[in-house]
Amino acid sequence: MKALMFGWEFPPHILGGLGTASYGLTRGMAMQPDMELVFCIPKPWGDEDQSFLKIIGMNHVPVVWRDADWEYVKQRYGKVNMNPQNYFDFRDRIYADFSYRYVNDLGCFEFSGRYPDNLLEEINNYSIVAGVVARTESFDVIHAHDWLTYPAGIHAKNVSGKPLVIHVHATDYDRSRGNVNPDVYNIEKNGMDNADHIITVSNLTRQTVIEKYYQDPAKVTTVHNAVEPLSPEILAIPDKKGVKDKIITFLGRITMQKGPEYFVEAAAKVLAKAPHARFVMAGSGDMMDKMIRLAAARNIADRFHFTGFMKGKQVYEILKSSDVYVMPSVSEPFGISPLEAMQCGVPSIISKQSGCAEILDYAVKVDYWDIEAMADAMYSIITYPAMHAFLQEEGKKEVDNIKWEYAGQKVRRIYDQVINR
Question: Which residues does 172 contact at the CB level (< 8 Å), separation at least 6?
């Protein structure tokens, strides 16, 4: 079985949970001896782990024309720094003209490898390259991760005739608190409409897909995310010792989806009763300045620390130095970070509006808007050693049994179904 996967980021260069989930799932699937994976990303950096899959950098795939009149190309697309024989005749010439501004001297599209201002153009260009890849690779099934790659998955399906599975890691309803971008919504819905099957990371997301995107429930399956085992390097990071202050941590994008303002407000209530506590907001995002001002307005800035964006080993260093981890997300399709915290023996508080709440029994669950309940949970965990020890021990046992290998087996069964159909 060979799967052609389309993704947008891959460790160690990640900007959010999408790359982490892509890595974990592919690692878990690669444990199946007959599973072969080709993973496409816009711009690899060269240090990605390719021991269990093959990575294709879409910025390295030449886009060439055949059987096309060179004068037609020049008239339609203007000056392009390429040799005429190096162009590919895209099917029926259906692609948007603006895309060709990003073709370089080597005949490849240029990609930022991030989420630039011209993101929709990059998505379009990525889908064009997907057609070239689908013509040159042999595979049994197509798997597109998140909305950015749905057009690529659809194009690969049209070119190859192979079944398409899309993986919904989030929807724009989650990212925007309901203020949906119509362009993004249309891309998401088009991907779902054209998919042979839809994988969602939680039942919460599954309901959104069914109710907001009008998909047949029989076509949508939940495969919960998991967590990678801790590496020897991470295990070697020392635990918090000799630090008197209790440290409560928020780690993630500082955006309205993640509910950072509820964390700050709850922190102010905790500090009124426990002045020895310290709060860490690790991450970056468009609400960071607002949160800094809010902490100052609540007169708790001297007990609040903003670290900026963290990744890799840094994430585990901050987790292992924490007494409590908090994820107050307003709408979280899944949320891997609480699992990572619990792996490190850190009791976690999560919002009931998160997908991981469906599978975690030993995390404290509160409504994201219930600042009083959130503050009470924080205070209780840092005040009562028995409660901290119970959540620490049972939480670690629980997440150690939530494995990507099991998630990979569920995805494989979905592959078998769509191929057999």
Answer: 147, 180, 181, 184, 185, 188
Question: Which class for 283: exposed (0-12), middle (13-18), buried (19 or more C-beta within 10 A)?
Answer: buried
Strand partners, 64: 87
- Least confident interval from 108-117, 219-228, 232-241, 265-274: 232-241
Q: What is the pLDDT of residues 37-46, one digit of tens each?
A: 999 999 999 9
DSSP type of residue 154: H
DSSP-based three-state secondary structure for 56? strand
Domains of the chain: 2-61+108-226+405-420 (3.40.50.2000), 232-399 (3.40.50.2000)
CB atoms < 10 A from the CB of 78, how many? Answer: 10
- How far is residue 35's CA from residue 389's CA, in Å, rounded to a whole number? 41
**208-246 burial, b for 16+ CB within 10 Å, e for fewer?**
bbbebbebeeeebbbbbbbbbeeeeebeeeeebeeeeeb
The pLDDT tens digits for 149-204 are 999 999 999 999 999 999 999 999 988 877 899 999 999 999 999 999 999 999 99
Neighbours of 269 (CB within 10 A): 18
Picking from 417, 218, 231, the residue whose alpha carbon sits closest to that of residue 315 is 231
Q: What is the pTM assigned to this prediction?
A: 0.87
Cis peptide bond prior to 12, omega within 30° of 0? yes
CA neighbours within 13 Å on the CB side: how many for 194?
A: 23
